[in-house]
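From the shared-data thread, chain only:
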Amino acid sequence: MARRIIEITGPEAKDFLQGLVTNDIQKLSEGLVYAALLTPQGKYIADFFLVPANDAIWLDVDEDLAPSLMQRLSMYKLRADVTLTETNVKVRRGTGEPPKGALDDPRHPALGWRLYGSEEGDDGSDWESIRVAHCIPETGVELTPDTFILEVGFERLNGVDFRKGCYVGQEIAARMKHKTELRKGLATVEIDGSVPVGTPITAGGKPVGTVYTQADNQAIAYLRFDRAKGDMEAGDATLRMAE
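Structure, as tokens:
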């Protein structure tokens, strides 16, 4: 879990973020805020946690995404009275008794807590099993530049707010929200066998989707729901929707 913490300061920091990210910055008064930055076409750029830090806001993002995210935030900053600074703050996480100062992971209770300070790492929890059991996407695995956030469960994961007003990509997200139902998306499936991440899924010779993270005879899969019925195939493995 390599993370980078970007510090955002300045009198316009909250307004700056409010106009960019998928969630409501005002929720920082309650703890961590999970959010994403989207393209104007509504597709995923990065997901991250926003952290209340006295007079600053910390942005906790996957280390691989940090340089490009920093560049994009700097581009959006223009003349806003905001300063972006890379920090040496580290992240610990766990699912047991939270240490003093830890904050609840807002995506799901099973994901436990996150603690910001001078130490990094975790308590040895089986994160892959937790993610698969609760269908929680991971940066760079299920979350890629082709992702629409509602198809990967951002509403269920408390990562998007539909009442906060405009942000980049908001129109597309709102349009998908008000469809009758999503035709594609992530789901936890049962799997007999093991296949590489990215293996295509078929049923009756027709494409159904893609297999991603696997753990404990289950997997997270991206599916066309109208075709995800009965037994499905992915390489040498057999899949079916989880009960």
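The first strand starts at residue 3 and ends at 9.
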